[in-house]
Amino acid sequence: MDSRPEIARAAAEAAARQSYGKLVAYLAARTRDVAAAEDALADAFAAALERWPQAGVPDKPEAWLLAVARKRRVDAVRRRLTSEAARDHLRLIAEEMEARMVDEDLPDERLRLMFACAHPAIEAGVRAPLILQTVLGFDAPTIASAFLVSPATMSQRLVRAKTRIRETGIPFRVPERAELGERLGTVLEAIYAAFAEGWSDPAGTETRRRNLATEAIWLGRLMATLMPDEPEALGLLALMLFAEARRAARRNAAGDYVPLAEQDLALWDDTLIDEAETLLGRAAAKGVVGRYQLEAAVQSAHATRRLTGGTDWVAIKELYNALSVIAGSPVVSINRAVAIAEAEGASAGLDALDQLSGDKRLYDYQPYWAARAGLLARLGKVPQASEAYDRAIGLERDPAVRRFLQERRAELGRAEKY
Amino acid sequence: MRYMLLIYANEAAMAAAPTEKTYEISAAYGAYTEALKKSGAWLAGDRLKPTQTATTVRMANGKTNVLDGPYADTKEQLAGFYMIEAEDADAAIAWAARCPGASTGTIEVRPIWEMTEYPSQSV
User: Fold this and answer.
1) CATH number of the domain that B94 lies in?
2) Helix, strand, or coil here: A105?
3) Whole domain around residue B96: which residue ranges?
4) Residues of A in contact with B38 (CB under 8 A)
5) Is the pTM value of this prediction over 0.90?
6) pLDDT at B122 over 70
7) Which of A54, A71, A85, A144 is the most exposed, having the fewest neighbouring CB atoms within 10 Å of its CB?
């Protein structure tokens, strides 16, 4: 599968996205007009995506893009095709950027762009898509598929968000110390949302989704590089790397779903796990605990199985206790209940799940029903377990997981007969 | 809002599938329908008999034309439908993605054109 041309192609595409993001960030940080910045570079970026995978990445990728964009400026003026705003940006390219490019590297403004995209004044659901589009140059239909939204709707939301950045004067800057914590949280959350969407295609059969997890990790690396002293930026990257390390183990050769407890440890990627452990250690040394560090610590506890052969569920339960205090959510509560079940027994776990049953959001939430079904099954409550399995099966969109749940449900029936 | 989820599937491939697979799929549909009902989204839904049972009726130049077979000869055929109540298009798409048919065929999501949305002038 990983043929050499494919790898070269992906590398060239990544280089094109990298340079494109830098240029968009540079322009937009000066004018606050993201859409016009993208517009000014659109043709050049399209040309790079087409040309670089075949001809190779040029020595000075940003300069290459600028030269093509500049040529477009001449065409645009001649044909009066481009919008007024985009023409202003093309002028900026010709006058300011190229002057800078002669002997020094372009300053990296992508961090400022990300903070603008994840500003609290931007609708929460569109922050991750906006970052993927502006910093990485993904088009609306690709992003729409990954987030399960219609392409027309996604385009509208992206356009609206960019207008908002321009009209409401959202600043392109890294927040001051005092407000950094919360603001950094929205950026990390957006990156993690992108990763989670990509993670939901474990088999990696759907290129768009697999790429999304890879791109989110790339953004995570960028954050960890640009803000090396922020423990949560390091924590998020560690968390994503721990998860990514297990990707190959999540399906067997037949394409069937393999739950964490039954995964073949030889398929875990030790290099990624080691890198994640190092990052987590660096983050912990800063002495400020946060949501992503705790979640990464849970993953670290799971990863320890490759060394000790066992899982310390009491420690995991404690980590989820801490998580529900600083970042409680239905997801955390469900995971906490599962950890309690492992540490103290299925009935204690079920009690913890029962405490959530008032939350309406869980009615359509597959992991709640799957966890419930598993615990009811262990307690021998067959009719209730099969009902919960049915709910989980009906809410699952991954066919492999659906098959897995169906098998578990069928085993219940068999156990009942004997 | 009400939405139609139109399920398109390759009839020939479905007919050729091993019994085990057929059983798995219909069990998945059963669970999906239950999940829709339990969360209050289900309004209606059924499976259609294969297109060989279809009859097409059309009136042209005052003459009624009755033909055997489906309206359009396509790679995937209309195999069933659900009508659901969903908050918005995103919620409807989320339900479509969970439909077992999404992994074997295609689900078309269409909002119902409600009477209240009709222009006020009447015929």
Assistant:
1) 3.30.70.1060
2) coil
3) 2-114
4) 363, 391
5) no
6) no
7) A54
Number of compact structural domains in chain B: 1
> How far is the alpha carbon of A149 from chain B, nearest alpha carbon, in Å?
6
Q: CB B27 to CB A406 under 8 A?
A: yes
User: What digits encode the pLDDT tens for the residues B8-58?
Assistant: 999 999 999 999 999 999 999 999 999 999 999 999 999 999 999 999 999
Q: Do B97 and A399 touch (CB under 8 A)?
A: no
Which residues of B lie inside 8 Å of A (Cβ-Cβ)?
24, 27-28, 30-36, 38-39, 89-90, 93-94, 97-98, 100, 102-103
CA A410 to chain centre: 35
Q: Is residue B121 in a domain?
A: no
Say whether pLDDT at A83 is over 60.
Answer: yes
Of the candidates A122, A114, A97, the one whose C-alpha atom is nearest the C-alpha of residue A26 is A97
CB pairs A-B closer than 8 Å: 52
What six digits make up the tokens of A400?
């492999």
Chain segment A286-315, per-residue pLDDT in tens: 999 999 999 999 999 999 999 898 999 999
- Residue in A135, A249, A153 with CA at minimum distance from that of residue A194: A135
Q: Is position B119 within any domain?
A: no
SS3 B77: strand
Is B79 within a domain? yes
Chain B residues in contact with A411 by the CB 8 A cut-off are: none
Write down the pLDDT at residue A1.
45
Nearest to A53 by CA among A1, A20, A21, A13: A13
